[in-house]
C-alpha cells in the first residue's frame, strides 16, 4: 500500500472510530488539502446520509463540467454513515453549507438552527479528520380551521409568523403558509425550530371596475398599464372580470374574492358579511394571539383556529391632491396600535380616475387609512435594458430586454414630492361616506458628504451608487413604493432623499468599500445614533461624513485554559437607551463569531462605551431583547473605544445558568 493510500485509510479509520477532530502531521506541508467530516442530527447525534455539502470560499477547488471550467461551487454527498470527503483544497478559507430534505440548512460551527457558521482556514497539504456539522430537523405545526358553527373552512390560507426581535421590540416575520383541505385541516411543514404565531389572514380587496377594464382591454398606453398593474399588485387585487370565481361586483368596484369558503358574501340589505383575520386560537390581532413553540423535529397538532363572521361596513370618500392628480392611488386600512405585525392590512382599495375611493367591506374596528404616492423615477437609457414582470391575479404585464454590462449611474431622486395621508378611522355599525383625505407633501432629508482622511476620494460613479436610506426607529418597514434605497448622492457630493411619512428615522449609509460611514450630523446631533423626527417640510444641511480610519475591536476568547472557537462575541452600547427603538439595523449592536483559534474581530464599530461578552450561541436567539442585554450586562466587560482606535480586548466565555 502506498503512503498516500495508507494515510487516507488512517483518516477513514479515525473517522469511523469517532476520534476528536485532528490535524495531520505538519510534515505534509505541500499539495492539495483534504477535509474529512461527518454530518449528524443535532438532537440524536445520529449520522445523516444523503446530505449535500457545498463548499464556498477561496479554498474551494474550481469545478469542471465535461472538461470545461465551471463557476458552480463544489458539492459532495454524505454516505450511509454521514461521512464526506472534500479533496483538492487550496490555501485559503473554506465555508461549508449543508442541505438535506427534512432539515434546516446548516453550516459548520452552528450551535442553534439559523445561527452563524464558522469559516475553516485551509493551509497547503493540510489534512483534517472528523470534522462535524450538526443539523436540526424541521418542525411542523398542524390543526384545523372552522367557522362559527364548527364546520370546516376549505381553502383558507394559514400563515405562520416567526417571533423575533427588531429594534428591541417583539415582531413577527412572515414564514411558511399552507391551505386547508376539504376537512378544514392544514399542515405547516419545514419550520425552523422557534416560536410562531399562526393566523388566517383575511384582507378585503377592492378595485375600480374601470381600472380592471383598462388593464384587460388595453385601453391605456403600455407605460401607464404597467404602472396600473404594479399598483394593483401592491393592493393584492385580482385582475379578473366580475362574476368569475376570482371576483364579484360591488357598485363601481370589483371585490377580489378570498380563496376557499371563508369569502365575503352579500347580505340582503346590500352590505357584506366577511370573515376577519384571526390569530390562534381565536384572536382578532397578533398582540392578542398565543404563540406556539416547536423544537427540532417536533410536530405540534391541534393548533386549531375558529373564524367568526362580521357584518362589514362601507367606507368611501375622495383623495384630495394638491397637484389635482389623485387617480388610481393604492389605499390601505391598517389596524391601529398593532405593534407585533404593523402594516398588515384589513382592507385595500384604489381610487378611481377622479380620486374617489370605496372600501365595500370593512369589519368594525379602529384603523389608520394610509395613502402614499411616490414620484415616478425618470426613465434613463438603461431602462430600455431592464426586464420587468408584474403579476396580479390572472394577468401578467412584462417588458424584456438584455441588461447592459457594468455599473451604471442610477436615476436621480425625482424633484416631485412624495404625497401621503394617514387618517385615523373608527368603523362602527354604520357606513362612512364623504370622507375627505387630503394628501400632503412628505418630509425629505438633504445635505452633503464629507471625507475625513487622506485616502483617495471615490469617483462620481461610485458615489452615485452609495445607498442612503432612512431607517424607521421602531424597526418597521418603509411603505410599499419607497423600497430600501431612499436617497442618492450626486456628482457634486450633495444628497437628497425621497419624502417619507412623518415619524422618527435614523440616517444609514452603505455602499463604499474603502471609506466607512462615520456620522450624519445635523444641528449638533448624530442622526446615525439619535433619530430625527420628521413632521413636515424638508430637513436640509445634514452632513454625512466618511472616514478611512475606522475604529473596532479584536481579541481572543478562551474557555478555561483553551481557546474557545465555539464562542460568539456580542458588542452592545453601555448606554441602555440605545438598546431599543434603534432601527432595523442598529449599528452599535453587533455579533462576531470566534474563529477556530478563538480570535474575533469587529472591523468597524463607532466610537463609544461598549459592553463586550463572549457567549455560547445557543443562548443568543433574542440578543436584541433589552431584557436579555440587561441580564448579561453585569457579566460583560466594559470598554471605551476611541475614534480610529483598533483596540485589543481578550475575553473569557461566560456561561449563563
In short:
By secondary structure, this protein is mostly beta strands. It is built from five helices and 53 strands. The N terminus is likely disordered.
Explain what the structure shows.
The chain is mostly beta strands and 657 residues long. The chain folds into 5 domains: 3-135, Immunoglobulins (Immunoglobulin-like); 139-202 and 277-306, Immunoglobulin-like; 204-257 and 309-437, Immunoglobulins (Immunoglobulin-like), CATH 2.60.40.10; 442-547, Immunoglobulin-like, CATH 2.60.40.10; 552-652, Immunoglobulin-like (Sandwich). Helices cover 7% and strands 43% of the residues. The chain contains 5 helices and 53 strands. The strands form 12 sheets. The protein has an 8-stranded mixed β-sheet. The radius of gyration is 28 Å and the shape is globular. The two termini are 53 Å apart. Residues 1-28 and 381-401 have low confidence and may be disordered.
Topology:
Layout: H1 3-16, E1 22-23, E2 33-41, E3 52-56, E4 63-65, E5 68-70, E6 75-77, E7 83-89, E8 92-99, E9 106-107, E10 120-122, E11 127-135, E12 139-146, E13 157-166, E14 169-179, E15 185-191, E16 194-200, E17 204-208, H2 209-217, H3 222-235, E18 247-250, E19 253-256, E20 265-266, E21 272-274, E22 278-279, E23 292-294, E24 299-300, E25 305-306, E26 310-320, E27 330-335, E28 347-350, E29 356-362, E30 365-373, E31 388-392, E32 395-399, E33 419-427, E34 432-438, E35 440-441, E36 445-452, H4 460-464, E37 467-472, E38 487-489, E39 494-497, E40 503-510, E41 516-522, E42 525-526, E43 532-534, E44 539-547, E45 552-559, E46 562-563, E47 567-573, E48 590-593, E49 599-602, E50 608-616, H5 626-632, E51 637-641, E52 646-648, E53 651-652
Parallel strand pairs: 2-11, 12-24, 12-25, 17-28, 26-34, 36-44, 45-52, 45-53
Antiparallel strand pairs: 1-11, 2-7, 3-6, 3-8, 4-5, 8-9, 8-10, 12-15, 13-14, 13-16, 16-22, 16-23, 17-19, 18-19, 20-21, 21-26, 26-29, 27-28, 27-30, 30-33, 31-32, 33-35, 36-39, 37-40, 38-39, 40-43, 41-42, 41-44, 45-46, 45-49, 47-48, 47-50, 50-51
Amino acid at each position: 500500500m502506498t503512503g498516500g493510500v495508507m494515510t487516507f485509510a488512517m483518516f477513514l479509520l479515525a473517522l469511523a472510530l469517532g476520534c476528536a477532530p485532528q490535524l495531520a502531521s505538519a510534515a505534509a506541508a505541500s499539495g492539495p488539502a483534504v477535509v474529512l467530516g461527518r454530518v449528524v442530527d443535532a438532537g440524536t447525534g445520529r449520522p445523516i446520509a444523503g446530505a449535500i455539502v457545498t463548499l464556498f470560499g477561496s479554498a474551494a477547488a474550481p469545478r469542471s463540467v465535461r472538461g470545461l471550467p465551471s463557476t458552480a461551487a463544489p458539492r459532495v454527498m454524505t454516505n450511509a454513515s454521514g461521512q464526506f470527503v472534500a479533496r483538492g483544497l487550496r490555501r485559503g478559507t473554506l465555508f461549508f453549507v449543508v442541505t438535506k430534505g427534512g432539515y434546516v440548512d446548516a453550516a459548520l460551527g452552528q450551535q442553534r438552527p439559523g445561527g452563524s457558521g464558522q469559516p475553516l482556514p485551509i493551509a497547503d497539504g493540510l489534512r483534517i479528520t472528523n470534522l462535524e456539522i450538526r443539523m436540526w430537523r424541521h418542525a411542523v405545526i398542524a390543526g384545523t380551521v372552522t367557522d362559527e358553527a364548527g364546520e370546516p373552512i376549505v381553502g383558507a390560507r394559514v400563515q405562520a409568523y416567526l417571533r423575533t426581535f427588531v429594534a428591541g421590540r417583539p415582531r413577527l416575520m412572515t414564514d411558511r403558509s399552507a391551505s386547508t383541505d376539504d376537512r378544514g385541516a392544514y399542515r405547516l411543514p419545514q419550520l425552523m425550530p422557534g416560536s410562531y404565531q399562526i393566523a388566517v389572514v383575511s384582507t378585503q380587496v377592492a378595485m375600480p371596475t374601470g381600472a380592471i377594464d383598462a388593464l384587460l382591454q388595453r385601453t391605456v398606453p403600455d407605460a401607464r398599464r404597467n404602472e396600473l398593474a404594479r399598483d394593483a399588485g401592491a393592493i393584492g387585487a385580482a385582475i379578473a372580470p366580475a362574476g368569475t370565481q376570482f371576483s364579484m361586483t360591488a357598485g363601481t368596484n370589483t371585490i377580489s374574492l378570498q380563496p376557499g369558503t371563508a369569502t365575503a358574501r352579500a347580505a340582503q340589505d346590500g352590505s357584506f358579511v366577511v370573515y376577519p383575520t384571526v390569530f390562534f386560537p381565536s384572536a382578532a390581532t397578533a398582540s392578542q394571539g398565543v404563540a406556539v413553540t416547536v423544537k427540532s423535529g417536533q410536530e405540534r397538532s391541534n393548533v386549531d383556529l375558529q373564524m367568526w363572521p362580521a357584518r362589514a361596513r362601507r367606507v368611501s370618500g375622495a383623495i384630495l391632491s394638491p397637484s389635482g392628480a389623485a387617480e388610481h392611488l393604492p389605499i390601505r386600512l391598517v389596524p391601529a396600535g398593532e405593534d407585533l405585525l404593523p402594516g398588515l392590512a384589513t382592507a385595500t382599495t384604489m381610487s378611481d380616475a377622479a380620486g374617489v375611493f370605496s372600501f365595500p367591506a370593512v369589519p368594525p374596528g379602529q384603523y389608520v387609512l394610509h395613502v402614499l404616492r411616490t414620484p415616478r423615477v425618470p426613465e434613463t437609457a438603461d431602462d430600455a435594458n431592464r426586464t420587468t414582470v408584474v403579476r396580479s391575479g390572472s394577468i401578467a404585464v412584462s417588458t424584456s430586454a438584455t441588461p447592459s454590462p457594468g455599473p451604471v449611474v442610477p436615476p436621480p431622486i425625482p424633484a416631485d414630492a412624495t404625497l401621503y395621508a394617514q387618517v385615523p378611522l373608527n368603523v362602527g355599525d354604520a357606513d362612512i361616506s364623504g370622507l375627505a383625505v387630503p394628501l400632503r407633501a412628505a418630509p425629505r432629508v438633504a445635505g452633503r458628504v464629507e471625507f475625513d482622511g487622506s485616502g483617495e476620494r471615490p469617483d462620481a460613479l461610485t458615489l452615485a451608487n452609495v445607498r442612503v436610506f432612512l431607517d424607521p426607529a421602531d424597526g418597521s418597514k418603509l411603505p410599499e413604493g419607497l423600497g430600501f434605497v431612499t436617497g442618492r448622492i450626486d456628482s457634486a457630493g450633495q444628497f437628497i432623499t425621497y419624502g417619507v411619512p412623518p415619524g422618527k428615522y435614523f440616517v444609514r449609509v452603505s455602499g463604499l468599500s474603502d471609506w466607512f460611514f462615520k456620522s450624519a450630523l445635523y444641528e449638533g446631533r448624530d442622526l446615525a445614533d439619535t433619530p430625527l423626527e420628521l413632521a413636515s417640510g424638508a430637513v436640509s444641511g445634514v452632513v454625512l461624513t466618511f472616514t478611512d480610519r475606522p475604529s473596532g475591536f479584536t481579541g481572543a476568547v478562551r474557555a478555561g485554559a483553551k481557546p474557545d472557537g465555539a464562542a460568539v462575541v456580542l458588542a452592545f452600547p453601555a448606554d441602555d437607551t440605545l438598546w431599543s427603538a434603534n432601527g432595523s439595523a442598529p449599528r452599535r449592536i453587533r455579533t462576531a463569531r470566534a474563529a477556530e483559534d478563538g480570535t474575533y474581530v469587529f472591523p468597524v464599530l463607532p466610537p463609544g462605551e461598549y459592553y463586550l461578552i463572549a457567549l455560547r450561541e445557543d443562548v443568543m436567539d433574542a440578543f436584541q431583547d433589552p431584557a436579555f442585554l440587561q441580564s448579561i450586562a453585569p457579566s460583560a466587560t466594559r470598554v471605551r473605544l476611541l475614534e480610529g482606535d483598533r483596540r485589543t480586548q481578550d475575553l473569557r466565555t461566560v456561561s449563563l445558568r
